[in-house]
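About this split. The held-out portion is used to measure sequence recovery: a designer receives only the structure tokens and must propose an amino acid at every position. Recovery is the fraction of positions where the proposal matches the reference. Here is one held-out target exactly as it appears in the evaluation file.
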């Protein structure tokens, strides 16, 4: 996409919002939308790419806010406080992700490996077998809870698991297989875009990964897979309007398919409601938190953001008491549509207030800018990590997937490093 096309599309979107009938845009929302537009254009002007995290973040929020103001979704209006906090988040993320790209720091390791290690010859059969076992495990679990609709049964088991009432126990071999396939996306991307051979086993593996994600009825796993391919295409400059449209249709189609598969009998689908719940409702949900939040939750500041470390600290003997769910996230906030996700900013805000928004926007902006810098230097390791985590960047309007599933995040980074470095270290 050329710079002119991007700029004209942005201008068209703004004009559409401004001149659409029966649309009333508050002064604060208008200011924030314009600022986000200018930030996106500035980022594109600097790097000449739409793949930089600064462009993606500012442009993403620009589109979300514009849609929120122009679509008749029936959700509550957003307060000025929300727009102010959102601006804090975007500015912190934007400038930190840009700044790290101009910082020179010593490189102690040669990262420029162009292929994964030979251990993939052993790993691929293991992953294929593990996927087959994991798919079988999902089948028996879904059938256990709902023999008429295993997808619905899998969904019911997830809800029961969150409530601590799931009495189904996988056999040990299924549990082990589930742990292995947790890194299936990293392996698939490595095989398709780093490996030189595309054989029958790679095709079989790709089909099994897709089937596994559909069986899990997990929209975000599907999104991770498709958005990883989008990130790769963007990096390779092979993205076009046609390909982007295909990605978008596939993304919405798979999300819709999984949604309908796990829906109950008699379910009446409403497309506008579907889009509103998954793409827009987290905004007024977080807005309600901003306007009702009462100071900090506990003496341990970080029980949401750093919940992954609480059991570890308790094991070491530290007196850390964290309420597992003080905001009753497994229940619903009504916007008026029911929703239990609150954008990426939620945990940072309830743990540390406005300082949490500022600090973590800078931290994550630095992380993403650093990864992108590695990608532009040609480091295949960085490309795999960037593409695997790309859904986290895109879904920041929905929830925080980076720290919420931190151990998964950490495992993915370590596993990706292993794919590339193990063989080279052995040779040395």
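Reference sequence for scoring:
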């Amino acid at each position: 996409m050329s710079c002119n096309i991007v700029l004209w599309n942005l201008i068209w979107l703004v004009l559409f919002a401004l001149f659409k009938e029966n649309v009333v845009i508050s002064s604060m929302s208008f200011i924030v939308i314009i600022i986000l537009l200018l930030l996106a254009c500035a980022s594109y002007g600097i790097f000449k790419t739409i793949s930089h995290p600064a462009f993606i973040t500012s442009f993403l929020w620009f589109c979300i806010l514009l849609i929120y103001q122009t679509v008749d979704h029936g959700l509550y209006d957003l307060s000025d406080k929300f727009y102010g906090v959102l601006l804090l988040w975007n500015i912190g993320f934007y400038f930190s992700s840009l700044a790290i790209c101009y910082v020179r720091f010593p490189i102690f390791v040669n990262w420029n490996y162009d292929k994964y290690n030979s251990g993939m010859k052993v790993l691929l059969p293991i992953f294929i077998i593990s996927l087959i076992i994991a798919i079988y495990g999902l089948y028996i679990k879904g059938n256990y809870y709902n023999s008429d609709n295993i997808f619905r049964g899998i969904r019911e088991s997830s809800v029961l698991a969150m409530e601590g009432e799931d009495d189904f126990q996988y056999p040990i071999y299924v549990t082990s297989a589930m742990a292995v396939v947790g890194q299936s996306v990293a392996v698939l991307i490595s095989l398709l875009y780093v490996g030189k051979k595309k054989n029958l086993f790679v095709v079989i593996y790709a089909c099994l990964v897709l089937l596994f994600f559909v069986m899990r009825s997990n929209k975000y796993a599907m999104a991770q897979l498709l958005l990883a391919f989008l990130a790769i295409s963007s990096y390779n400059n092979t993205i076009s309007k046609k390909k982007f449209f295909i990605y978008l249709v596939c993304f919405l189609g798979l999300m819709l398919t999984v949604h309908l598969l796990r829906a109950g009998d008699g379910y009446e689908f409403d497309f506008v409601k579907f889009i509103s719940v998954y793409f827009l409702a987290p905004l007024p949900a977080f807005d309600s938190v901003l306007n009702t939040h009462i100071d900090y939750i506990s003496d341990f500041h970080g029980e949401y953001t750093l919940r992954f470390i609480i059991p570890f600290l308790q094991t070491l003997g530290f007196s850390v008491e964290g309420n597992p769910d003080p905001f009753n996230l497994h229940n619903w906030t009504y916007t008026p549509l029911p929703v239990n996700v609150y954008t990426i900013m939620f945990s940072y805000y309830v743990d540390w207030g406005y300082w949490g928004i500022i600090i973590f926007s800078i931290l994550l902006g630095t992380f993403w800018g650093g990864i992108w810098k590695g990608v532009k230097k040609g480091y295949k390791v960085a490309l795999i990590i960037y593409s695997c985590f790309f859904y986290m960047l895109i879904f920041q309007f929905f929830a925080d997937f980076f720290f919420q599933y931190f151990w998964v995040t950490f495992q993915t980074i370590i596993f990706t490093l292993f794919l590339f470095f193990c063989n080279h270290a052995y040779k040395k």
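Annotator remark: Strands lie at 333-334, 338-339.
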